[in-house]
Amino acid sequence: MNSELHVVFGTGPAGVTLVDELLSRGHRVRAVNRSGTAPVPAEVEMVAADITDTDAMATVSAGATVIYNCAHAPYHLWDDLLPKLQAGFLAGAASSGARLVVTDTLYMYGPTSGVPMTEHTPHNATSHKGRLRAKVADRYLHANSSGEAQVTIARAADFYGPRVTNSALGGAVFFPALQGNPVVALGDIDQPHAFSYIGDVAAALATLGEHPEALGRVWHVPTTSDHTTRDVHRIIGTLTGHEITADILAAATTDAWGPFDATFMREYAELFYQYLEPQIVDCQAIADTFGLGPTPIEDALRTTVAWYRRQLA
């Protein structure tokens, strides 16, 4: 096994999938969350720590070559938590000298009217969350350029894949699809929409972590943007053997809807524009530099359906 230590913070779908990816590449892996427990292989060192505690972050990051920010915070806590989480990650990276790979969103770009988003697309967010993510990203890049810490940023669209249940293309789609029931969908399902397969996200994070030349900039992870949501439903229908029908939320709401409670819907309303216009992500840079492309969506959906079928069984 490689002697380099890679430390993954956060054990949601992205974090756990990244752990598997890093192990497959022969790295030593330490996984960190608040509880110190997670469904990870036995060879992973599992540690409990609070990312907002900068002293604890220095301790748990010690000896690392790369640390990864796969942590998640509920939308309604972003104002308070995101700056504290950022301070913790920068403290861990600065004290250890490790490269920091940050998992990020597309929110800072704001509405684009279908113009493909590149890593150089201006930050024109119309939402509070988008402006906050832009501020956080700028701080990370400044930390790298100033020499405070070594940082790179990986941006993804909506996740889907094994373990991804809390997503627009998650449990509220695959579980009912397998049972022949209506699935839920958002906005205009005939617009192209960007989806990032969780296996491709993990491969991108690991690759960026392994390559110092990736530092100091934003990278879009391999993402599929050339299918509408209706296209995706059609593929899922073929894979499950059930014709897909959808309950569609056509416009933003602040009320509970489908599997989403009112708190989530209130917070998400300002981001609903993503489902009302073509959402297209240009991920050519990571393809040209590191040879990474998206898994064909039919193959990724086949793997995802198989995973959900096992959960039902």
UniProtKB/TrEMBL annotation:
This protein's source sits in the domain of life called: Bacteria
Q: Boundaries of each NAD-dependent epimerase/dehydratase domain copy?
A: 10-215
Give one Pfam hit by family name: Epimerase
User: Gene3D superfamilies in the record, alphabetically?
Assistant: NAD(P)-binding Rossmann-like Domain
Q: Which GO terms describe its molecular function?
A: aldehyde dehydrogenase (NAD+) activity
Q: Name one GO cellular component term.
A: cytoplasm
**Which SUPFAM superfamilies does the annotation name?**
NAD(P)-binding Rossmann-fold domains
- Identify this protein by name: Nucleoside-diphosphate-sugar epimerase
